[in-house]
Design brief:
There is one protein chain. By secondary structure, the chain is mainly α. The protein has one domain (26-131). Helix content is 17%, strand content 5%.
Amino acid sequence: MKPIVLIVATFAAYAAGALAQGTPAPIEDTAFGLGKGSVFDTVTPKPFSFEGEGAGKIIPPPPGMPVMIPHPIDAYLPLTLDRNACIGCHDRPGDVGKKLAKGTARPAPASHYVLKDGKRALSGAQYNCTACHAPQAGVDALVKNASSPTK
Protein backbone atom coordinates (compact mmCIF):
# COMPACT_ATOMS: atom_id res chain seq x y z
CA MET A 1 0.00 0.00 0.00
CA LYS A 2 2.83 2.42 0.81
CA PRO A 3 4.36 2.22 -2.72
CA ILE A 4 1.01 3.20 -4.27
CA VAL A 5 0.67 6.18 -1.93
CA LEU A 6 4.22 7.21 -2.80
CA ILE A 7 3.51 6.94 -6.56
CA VAL A 8 0.27 8.94 -6.25
CA ALA A 9 2.00 11.61 -4.13
CA THR A 10 4.86 11.88 -6.66
CA PHE A 11 2.40 12.20 -9.54
CA ALA A 12 0.39 14.85 -7.67
CA ALA A 13 3.53 16.85 -6.91
CA TYR A 14 4.63 16.64 -10.57
CA ALA A 15 1.17 17.75 -11.79
CA ALA A 16 1.09 20.64 -9.31
CA GLY A 17 4.52 21.79 -10.45
CA ALA A 18 3.53 21.58 -14.11
CA LEU A 19 0.36 23.58 -13.49
CA ALA A 20 2.25 26.19 -11.46
CA GLN A 21 4.57 26.91 -14.40
CA GLY A 22 1.65 27.65 -16.70
CA THR A 23 1.64 27.57 -20.47
CA PRO A 24 4.69 29.18 -22.10
CA ALA A 25 3.95 32.25 -24.20
CA PRO A 26 4.06 31.62 -27.96
CA ILE A 27 7.09 32.95 -29.86
CA GLU A 28 6.29 35.26 -32.75
CA ASP A 29 7.60 34.13 -36.15
CA THR A 30 9.46 37.45 -36.47
CA ALA A 31 11.64 36.60 -33.44
CA PHE A 32 13.58 33.81 -35.17
CA GLY A 33 16.98 34.37 -36.80
CA LEU A 34 18.86 37.52 -37.74
CA GLY A 35 16.31 38.67 -40.31
CA LYS A 36 13.73 41.07 -38.97
CA GLY A 37 10.71 39.65 -40.75
CA SER A 38 8.40 36.69 -40.80
CA VAL A 39 9.91 33.26 -41.43
CA PHE A 40 7.07 32.76 -43.91
CA ASP A 41 8.09 35.70 -46.13
CA THR A 42 9.98 35.03 -49.37
CA VAL A 43 12.74 37.59 -49.25
CA THR A 44 14.81 38.83 -52.16
CA PRO A 45 17.96 40.56 -50.89
CA LYS A 46 18.38 44.26 -51.56
CA PRO A 47 20.83 45.03 -54.38
CA PHE A 48 24.21 46.28 -53.17
CA SER A 49 27.56 47.03 -54.64
CA PHE A 50 31.10 46.32 -53.65
CA GLU A 51 33.59 48.86 -54.89
CA GLY A 52 37.08 49.76 -53.85
CA GLU A 53 40.05 47.64 -52.86
CA GLY A 54 39.37 43.93 -53.26
CA ALA A 55 36.22 44.30 -55.35
CA GLY A 56 35.85 41.46 -57.82
CA LYS A 57 38.84 39.51 -56.51
CA ILE A 58 38.56 35.86 -55.62
CA ILE A 59 39.17 35.77 -51.89
CA PRO A 60 40.40 32.32 -50.79
CA PRO A 61 38.08 31.08 -48.05
CA PRO A 62 39.12 29.18 -44.93
CA PRO A 63 39.22 25.37 -45.42
CA GLY A 64 35.78 23.85 -45.85
CA MET A 65 34.10 27.19 -46.56
CA PRO A 66 32.52 28.12 -49.92
CA VAL A 67 34.06 30.88 -52.04
CA MET A 68 32.49 34.32 -52.14
CA ILE A 69 30.78 35.46 -55.35
CA PRO A 70 33.00 38.22 -56.83
CA HIS A 71 30.28 39.90 -58.94
CA PRO A 72 26.79 41.38 -58.49
CA ILE A 73 23.98 38.81 -58.56
CA ASP A 74 20.84 40.95 -58.22
CA ALA A 75 19.90 40.26 -61.87
CA TYR A 76 20.02 36.49 -61.19
CA LEU A 77 17.68 36.44 -58.18
CA PRO A 78 15.63 34.64 -57.15
CA LEU A 79 17.33 31.34 -58.01
CA THR A 80 14.93 28.48 -58.65
CA LEU A 81 15.26 24.97 -60.02
CA ASP A 82 13.93 26.20 -63.39
CA ARG A 83 15.77 29.55 -63.42
CA ASN A 84 19.45 29.59 -62.47
CA ALA A 85 21.69 31.88 -64.51
CA CYS A 86 24.76 30.80 -62.51
CA ILE A 87 25.02 27.49 -64.32
CA GLY A 88 25.40 29.24 -67.67
CA CYS A 89 28.97 30.18 -66.72
CA HIS A 90 29.83 27.77 -63.89
CA ASP A 91 28.43 24.38 -65.04
CA ARG A 92 31.60 23.14 -66.76
CA PRO A 93 32.50 19.72 -65.33
CA GLY A 94 35.27 19.26 -67.91
CA ASP A 95 37.19 22.23 -66.45
CA VAL A 96 37.15 21.07 -62.81
CA GLY A 97 40.73 20.99 -61.51
CA LYS A 98 42.24 22.64 -64.60
CA LYS A 99 44.20 25.89 -64.59
CA LEU A 100 41.96 28.69 -65.79
CA ALA A 101 42.78 31.76 -67.84
CA LYS A 102 42.52 35.05 -65.95
CA GLY A 103 38.95 36.35 -65.97
CA THR A 104 37.44 32.93 -66.72
CA ALA A 105 34.53 31.88 -64.55
CA ARG A 106 35.47 29.21 -62.04
CA PRO A 107 33.65 25.91 -62.68
CA ALA A 108 31.52 24.40 -59.93
CA PRO A 109 33.69 22.04 -57.85
CA ALA A 110 33.63 18.26 -58.25
CA SER A 111 31.58 17.96 -55.05
CA HIS A 112 28.65 19.62 -56.86
CA TYR A 113 28.43 16.89 -59.52
CA VAL A 114 26.97 13.38 -59.68
CA LEU A 115 27.38 10.68 -62.32
CA LYS A 116 24.32 10.48 -64.57
CA ASP A 117 24.36 8.06 -67.50
CA GLY A 118 28.15 7.86 -67.24
CA LYS A 119 28.64 11.65 -67.40
CA ARG A 120 29.16 14.23 -64.68
CA ALA A 121 26.03 16.34 -64.20
CA LEU A 122 25.28 19.10 -61.72
CA SER A 123 23.48 17.64 -58.73
CA GLY A 124 19.89 18.80 -58.36
CA ALA A 125 20.61 19.53 -54.70
CA GLN A 126 23.14 22.18 -55.77
CA TYR A 127 20.83 24.48 -57.77
CA ASN A 128 20.48 27.10 -55.01
CA CYS A 129 23.98 28.58 -55.15
CA THR A 130 23.24 31.34 -52.64
CA ALA A 131 22.41 28.80 -49.93
CA CYS A 132 26.19 28.47 -49.45
CA HIS A 133 27.84 31.15 -51.60
CA ALA A 134 27.35 34.80 -50.71
CA PRO A 135 28.26 37.77 -52.88
CA GLN A 136 31.04 40.03 -51.72
CA ALA A 137 29.64 43.20 -50.24
CA GLY A 138 30.92 46.29 -48.52
CA VAL A 139 28.55 45.85 -45.56
CA ASP A 140 28.97 45.23 -41.85
CA ALA A 141 28.72 41.61 -40.74
CA LEU A 142 25.62 40.59 -38.77
CA VAL A 143 27.69 38.11 -36.77
CA LYS A 144 31.38 38.41 -35.90
CA ASN A 145 33.53 35.95 -37.85
CA ALA A 146 36.97 35.16 -36.44
CA SER A 147 38.04 32.90 -39.35
CA SER A 148 40.69 34.10 -41.77
CA PRO A 149 41.46 33.29 -45.41
CA THR A 150 44.00 30.59 -46.19
CA LYS A 151 47.42 31.69 -47.34
